[in-house]
Amino acid sequence: MPILQACAHRIDKRGDDSPATLTAGEALPAGDAAESLLAALNQSFHAKPKAWGHFSEPQTAADASDEDDASGAQESEAPPFTPDAQVGAGSPPEAAPMPPSRFAAELTRYRRGELNFTDFTTQAAQDLLALVDAQLSVGGQLWCVHNRQGETEFLTVALLHQRHGYGFDAQGQVVEVDQLNLGQLMLAARIDLTQWQRGESRQYIAHVQDRGSKKTGEAFREWLGCREGVDASAETRTLLKAFSDYVEHEDLNEEASREKTTTLIDYANAQAKRGEPITLDELSELVDENQPKAFYDYIRNQDYGLAAEIPPDKRTLQQFKRFTGRATGVSISFDSHLLGNSIEYDEERERLIIKQIPGQLKDQIKQRGQ
Question: Domain count of the chain?
């Protein structure tokens, strides 16, 4: 993943009452160490719970590139970020739009060649001071990286904290050392610049969603100017529900059901690890190689409301499992999350109690009684 531009800005904050200060850095050539750090950062980032979204402005980078200089100058006048002007988390699409994002405006100017990477990221770091003052007790290094991965370009921004540790020097003496704490990522985002420029997606921004620091996450999203595009957890649950319905609809045997479930989970987890969305047509081909469009067509015909690409939620995937079993004249298959709710298992009597009988099954039993 070659780094095209990289710049680190130091934000110092000592205690809750001390104002944050900025020591701006400059874009420097990236060596092997920077490439390795980016790889480690991406690995940590992909393992975190994330939210997905898009810039609050309807304008895309592609639109901006066609405008004249006067329009670009007006766009750069977006107000600086202030944590008091936040829009609440979970605001519905109909809510009042966010104020223009200076981060997005300056990023647009950088992509047009009107700003160099140092100036763009320095302004972003300066605007971040208000968030650090309001939400954090310590600062860190704001590392901004523009890199290319295959045919896709990304911008990664992350506030990296340092931690004290110990090591050995060349003489074998114990010495104190500082190292970056990549496991503590509260403020980090990854923007798919290629998707943003195409203007065809509403989930090209992925940012860490720390469930223990809701206000900090809201402030960071506001600093980015990011409006939530989709609920990754809800979309993943809907996909798994659609898959369960598909398995029942196809009346698959136990072995086939288990095999296809494993295929889905393996693919979804692999996409999550790479930080890429689940693509429905690609998943459909994996689920059934003989009928590569069967699962895709089933989802579309049943109108689950799923987009062509779904951001995977790792926690939801980890909780998903199907119980299947077959005996003489009986075949049972259900999702693990139903156990203890609509389905109960009586271990002493070896009974499985179904509280909510499927409507189709209920109708068949009634017709049998008549």
Answer: 2
Model confidence pLDDT, tens digit, residues 164-203:
888 898 999 999 988 899 988 889 999 999 989 988 777 8
Q: Provide the whole-model pTM.
A: 0.66
Q: Is 297 exposed, middle or buried (0-12, 13-18, 19+ CB in 10 A)?
A: exposed
Query: Is 328 in the same domain as 200?
Result: no
Q: How far apart are CA 28 and CA 62, in angstroms?
A: 27
Question: In this structure, are 194 and 184 located in the same domain?
Answer: yes
CB-facing half-sphere around the CA of 189: CA atoms within 13 A:
26
pLDDT digits (tens, 9 = 90+) for 71-116: 444 444 555 555 544 433 343 444 455 556 899 999 999 999 999 9
Q: Is there a single domain that holds both residue 94 and residue 225?
A: yes
Q: How far is CA 215 from the centre of its chain?
A: 18
Domain boundary at 190, 215, 230, which? 230
Which residue carries 């944050």 as its tokens? 20
Residues 17 and 142 occupy one common structural domain: yes
Q: Return the H-helix or E-strand segment holding 10.
A: strand 3-14
What is the tens place of the pLDDT at every residue in 228-278? 877 788 889 899 989 988 988 887 777 888 888 889 999 999 988 887 889
Distance CA 252, CA 363 (A): 22
Q: What is the DSSP letter of 199?
A: T
Degrees to nearest 5, angle at CA 87 with 228 and 192: 30
Report CA-CA distances (Å) from 81 to 7, 50, 77, 86, 87. Answer: 21, 22, 12, 9, 12
Burial code of 20-46, b = ≥16 C-beta within 10 A, e = fewer?
bebebbebeebeeebbebbeebbebbb
Is 188 among the domain residues? yes
Residue 353: inside a domain? no
74 and 48 share one domain? yes
